[in-house]
Amino acid sequence: MGTIPSTHAMTEDDTDEIDLQVLRAKYAKERERRLRPDANTQYHRTSGAFGYYAKDPYTPRTEREPLTDTVEVLVVGGGFGGLLTGARLRQVGVESIRMLDEAGDFGGTWYWNRYPGIHCDIESYSYMPLLEEVGTVPQWRYAPGEEIRRHAVAIAKTFGLYRDTVFHTRVTDLEWDEATDEWVVSTDRGDRMRARFVITSSGTLTQPKLPGIPGIESFQGHTFHTSRWDYDYTGGDQEGGLTGLADKKVAVVGTGATGVQVVPHLGQDAKHLYVFQRTPSSVDVRDNRPTDPDWAASLRPGWQRERMENFLAIVSGEQVDNDLTQDGWTSTAHLQRKMITGAVDTSLPPHERELREELDDARKMNRIRARVDQIVDDPATAELLKPWYRYMCKRPCFSDHYLQTFNRENVTLVDTADHGGITRMTEDAVVVGDTEYPVDCVIFATGFDVGVSGVVSGTMPVRGRGGQSLLDSWRHGPRTLHGFYSDGFPNLFQLGSLQNANAVNFTNILLEQAEHIAAVIAEGIKTGARAIEPTSKAVEEWGRTIRENALDNAAFQAECTPGYYNREGAGGTGGTSYGPGPVAFHRMLAHWRKTRIHEVLVKD
Ligand code: NDP
After folding, report:
1. Degrees (nearest 5) of the Cα angle 571, 539, 308?
2. Quick one: pLDDT at residue 575?
3. Strands in 220-340 per DSSP E
4. CA 448 to ligand 1 centroid distance, Å
5. Is 204 in the pocket of ligand 1 (CB under 6 A)?
6. What is the mean pLDDT of the chain?
7. Distance (Å, rounded) from C-alpha 543 to C-alpha 557?
8. Residue 162, exposed/middle/buried by CB under 10 A (0-12, 13-18, 19+)?
């Protein structure tokens, strides 16, 4: 492991007794305990035999005739990415827009996830986009899911995006028609519609996944995934009151960001709750509070953009005088650098910087572990709830109710780490090792398949010029300019972090992407361009830029506890976004729009 310099030589304020050697060994041991050789293949997709788990419980599907008409722009995805793009396109004068989504309404993540306790982890004043344009201020500092979902609907109404929209519709094929310079869009509703431009914003954490627990299909009690909450069974709503569980023994599987939010309500209302944990989350203070009406009244035009940019700059490692948000994200910005690309503090030699970060990380995690001891009464339970890994190995969580729930008589924590998760399920029980836990209901808070987008995962096959498949064109790696478009695939844009920017406040990234795409399309229309498409040279140069500036977090991720951040321990995913970070990326894009936009406009 090498020599570790004295921590006291490094920092004047370090009064903690932190032995990094011991801590690293403990982290490695915990990682080893959790590691499974089957990595990502340990999960079931919620399709085929498990399709029940992905069905829409919120909106009945209505039959309609297949569509064969033509629109100017078709946007795949009605979450914030699609909505923001639709809004900005309207503002640059595009009238003919069709939105399309598999869900029954707008909202994306917030359409599907309606579990009790759902809130946004990012401050709502920065997270909920277009607040000023819709004319609202969130009611809470961290908004409940329903408020966010309604805000998505309000954006759609404000910008007239319900017009021409089709829901409960999945694109099955995108094909460029060279004769008409249009995309032919086929769907699972038998549509064959046409569009001059297609924009895909199909999200990254959309398809619920299930653990591949032996016997999972034999369970005869009630069961569902948190992203398809069954209120008919549980009673209540997102604020709780789950009266249907008063006489039920309930199992919840998973203690990630979703599990942490849902457990307090289940603990409150179930007759008995078993929480099946494999890796504990880090759970810090939430400190949610209603919006101060005087503060809301004092806000001046442009306040949201200023707040979003301030937050983005801080979490991207930029030097900022004033922290407008002051929360668990901004105070740990330097610890997030390992996962999210951004500016690097070059005032220290790399080795010293790494060591300083590791010590800060250890202090942060010590405080999080100490908080468990302060809150949880039973020492054995407290021990099991302590996270042993570096701060950004897993998504940080915030709650003022989660740990407290384990002090309830009717709540049992079942640690499954030594068994790599739940051992098996029977007709009426969840089994860990040799112990059976008979339950009436199993709720899976087990997260989502992590895909880059339907385009990249191949669930939305794309054929461009000359019938070439996009996946084939990308067989040696993604080929894009700035992440948006690819050579050989005219008038096709995608949103997402691939070869683009990434940040914890992803709606900020989506807003910049929407504005960029709208500006490029508007310029194309204004100048009478035949198509919008980057040259092969531009695409190759951008690929080189991405590679040369890639964040090297492989060593960090290799030591992390397994999870979707490091492909279940298989290795890092660094290098897919713009290394210098979102602030630098947005600055570069603004300059490109002023000076080089003509390079993607195809004249004939
Ligand atoms: P995660 O993938 O983060 O968590 C899944 C959970 O299921 C983990 O605790 C995992 O354990 C557990 N699990 C998986 N398989 C088994 C098994 N066989 N036995 C026992 N446990 C198992 O999903 P979430 O839905 O919690 O969160 C996904 C993402 O969604 C978050 O990271 C975040 O980005 C976002 N989110 C944001 C929220 C917000 O902003 N408020 C709220 C909720 C989610 P293990 O850790 O060991 O793999």
Report:
1. 70
2. 57
3. 222-225, 249-253, 272-277, 283-284
4. 8
5. no
6. 93
7. 23
8. middle
Instruction: Report the residue among 395, 442, 448 best suited for mutation to probe ligand 1: largest number of ligand atoms under 8 A from its CB.
Output: 395
Q: Which residue has the higher pLDDT, 28 or 11?
A: 28
| Contact indicator for 121, 398 with CB cutoff of 8 Å | yes
Q: Which amino acid is at 481?
A: L
pLDDT, tens only, 94-153: 999 999 999 999 999 999 999 999 999 999 999 999 999 999 999 999 999 999 999 999
CA 349, CA 188: separation in Å to the nearest integer?
A: 56
**Closest ligand 1 atom, CA of 260?**
26
Backbone angles phi, psi at 266, to 5 degrees: -65, -40
Instruction: Retrieve residue 358's tokens.
Output: 């590791």
Helix 303-315 and helix 506-526, axial crossing angle in degrees, nearest 10 = 120
If you measure from the C-alpha of residue 457 to the centroid of ligand 1, how many angstroms do you get, rounded to a whole number? 21
SS3 249: strand
The CB of 279 under 6 Å from ligand 1? The reply is yes
Closest CA to 459 of 449, 467, 444: 449
Q: Per residue, what are the HEC states of 262-296? A: HHHHHHHHCCEEEEEECCCCCEECCCCCECCHHHH
- Give the separation between CA 79 and CA 122, rounded to whole angstroms: 17
Q: Whats the size of the chain, residue-wise?
A: 604
Does the beta carbon of 205 lie inside 6 Å of ligand 1?
yes
Q: Model's pTM, two decimal places?
A: 0.95
